[in-house]
Amino acid sequence: MPLFACGCQTTRSAMPPEATALASSAPRELNKVSLPAYRIEPPDLLSIEALNIVPKMPYSLKTLDVLSIELQRSPMDRLQRGDLLSIRAPGALAEAPIDAVYPVEATGLVNFGGLYGSVAVGGMTVAEASQAIESHLKQVLADPRVELSLAQSGSPISGAYPIQVGGTVDLGMPYGTVAVAGLSVEQAREAIYQHLVRFFNQPNVSVSLVSVGAQQQIAGEHLVSPDGTVNLGTYGSVSVVGLTLAEAKMAIEHHLSQFLDRPEVAVNVYAYNSKVYYIVTQGAGTGDRVYRFPITGNDTVLDAISNVNGLEGISSKQMWIARPTPDPCQVQLLPVNWDAVTAQASVQTNYQLMPGDRLFIAEDKLVALDTGLAKLLAPAERVMGFSILGAGVATRFSGKVLEGGGNQRSTF
After folding, report:
1. Quick one: 198 and 70 in the same domain?
2. Which of 45, 87, 159, 349 is the most exposed place for a label (fewest CB within 10 A)?
């Protein structure tokens, strides 16, 4: 590629003579190269997936942690409204069998229909409810044996319960909330048990940790901040600037290992915001325009110009790529033959764009000359316009116009 020292006299309106030499090694359409490993920089947007997030033990529960809580009712529990009872009476009448699931109504009754009526069971144990139903059915049946079991709790406690802001888990109505933040899982189970004994006799409660709040803070999209770090919530920030994705993964896992047991994450780039190329169109005296586009790794000159909907009326077909070099005193230029790229489908100068490239499109000289002349002559035109206007006004209000309104034969 042609290189020019900073002492060379170059202008934007004309390419240096040396720039006409094509760079044989420059990648172009049909001969593209893969870009080097992506280096993270601000303001890239990273996608982080939490694969293995296990807290170090002993672990104190925190807000956003999720607990799995299961309650198994004891046979000694008192039946409540909304409970579903599985009731079977083998000796029931054939035309009115009793073999189904019956709800405990809000009044505490179990309704067997018009023939048998209702039985009050609210507040009873399963055994007491069974005896009460048998006693009631004796009024109709000769052998009212009853098989009764709790099919489903009216207000079940089963599932995943997040620890809310304030450090509590909400068990729903009518049980309310229990404070568990700062406790271990076993201590949380005991706290929940002590809370539920007000509603049940000898409840069997199991509690386990489903997920930790770290997963919600770590997983998702993270913007690389201007200082080159990503924020992981309560786990602090990690510097990832200048790292590849593999290096960023290791850096994040190493940082999280201070708090978690063998953490594992997956890191990808969600939005490539830091690697871009520019299109600069010379303004022909009306001001240059600059367009910024992210690098996709597959962009060519033709792709770039299609992003701005083609050449403008003030632009010429003279264009080149200015490519940054490590030496600040050198410029690297790749001339583009626009007619060959478009009309002839030539790939010779349809170069592949690299991060930092400037595709410069020179102005149309005639348009620039016209604009320059307009700027030069505009002040004189204004002065002449004011002069002509002033002369006309002075003529209109001079001589007889001022004496008699312009009518020379007037006697007044």
Report:
1. yes
2. 159
